């Protein structure tokens, strides 16, 4: 253990107790948080990364970048920081080690984590809630003949209640799934197939900037004979309500529009979409993976009929999600998984108690601390954005007002995004969604906003979350400023811009 560990441990515990003091949780004591703190493991980056830290510019990036570009067009495997020292450490300290890996606060061995849209670290309180159901309380929640089943079932129903509470739903309307991908598949395919059986309605409306799992579900439905309208977005990333209204036909059975976009953080006009759908008797599904637990949502106020939720975007475990399915007026859908009829017959299969209970706890914390988290994240986001935009030729992608502040997507003109990501290896960032991050293609979301290939290529998404600190933002601002400047100095285009040449007037020779 390093010599700073005891101080760090005390500090971490202090942070824990301060954050949790006002909650009922304080009474039960944060076991995991405390054990991490006393082992000196759970350190917030701010404690050891002073804001005046020197940023070393990695001058090897150019050669590395060239090499991998010339090979497969794939990102090289080493971008995720080797941590051999840490791995050894982890193996030598069972228990604490595993949990240490589940947190992201070990400055010095791991990059600063600013990729909260890809996933969030589990809140230690969530781990606490899950642990008993991984050991002694292992009953099958569907077993009705003994206490093992009953106790697990009871905890799952409590979790369902917490998730329902977070979005203003009734617990009976919450169906556990494996994640938002499954919930999106279930909603889009399920409603469409049910209505097709009825013979009349075979048209769906969605939007070009949806997550791949919605778009791909729609493509599959097209193969099955459905018609799909992919609405464009305006340059601010929002849909045009008049276009949505015009797209609704008598055969339309479903409108699927996400609440918060995962790449640019824009918040679609949910109330208006819901009102329009209800007036036209069309079901309204929303992918809420990036919105639930982050902004206040009420399915009744918004007239939402189906909503997809993901556990790992709300500081809960991966591999679990939920789908809100309205009961009044009842939403009918064909299940995509058949079997024992669990989850109101909509999603068969034995539930995963530790994951469901973890997600429930994550939802409970989100509801209880939303105001606090939201204030902190907004403040950090404003600082980050102001700092980034003070660099010349830098722009925010997506609407500034209708925007979830924890997602800041910025274009740095005259810098290639992949080069910048490589130059920022000490910060875990992404240029877009995790599932497309291996591709060097410009983001289809930014292209839909009308961004040029170059602008889309020069964009980076900064994801701020519950555990992000001021010092991390300071460090990131300093690092980005230095490295953008460094990369621009290598760019011949930048040189021309500095000389006052308008690049649009140049006639490039064709070869
Ligand atoms: C908007 C959106 N929808 C769906 C998903 C998929 O969620 P999950 O990983 O729970 O399947 C994600 C994240 O990956 C997302 O950002
Ligand atoms: S599945 Fe997570 S970003 Fe695409």
Describe this structure in words.
- The protein is of the alpha/beta class and 511 residues long.
- It folds into two domains: 50-122 and 369-497, Aspartate Aminotransferase, domain 1, CATH 3.90.1150.10; 130-363, Aspartate Aminotransferase, domain 2.
- Helices cover 42% and strands 10% of the residues.
- The chain is built from 19 helices and twelve strands.
- The protein has helices spanning 5-20, 25-28, 31-38, 45-48, 61-70, 84-92, 96-102, 124-130, 147-167, 180-198, 212-223, 241-247, 270-279, 353-389, 417-423, 444-448, 453-457, 470-489, 492-498; strands spanning 112-113, 174-177, 203-207, 227-231, 252-256, 283-287, 306-310, 321-325, 394-396, 407-412, 427-428, 459-463.
- Helix 13 links the parallel strand 5 and strand 6.
- Helix 10 (180-198) runs parallel beside helix 11.
- The radius of gyration is 24 Å and the shape is globular.
- Residues 1-66 and 72-107 have low confidence and may be disordered.
- Pyridoxal-5'-phosphate binds at residues 117, 179-181, 211, 213, 258, 262, 287, 289-290, 310, 321.
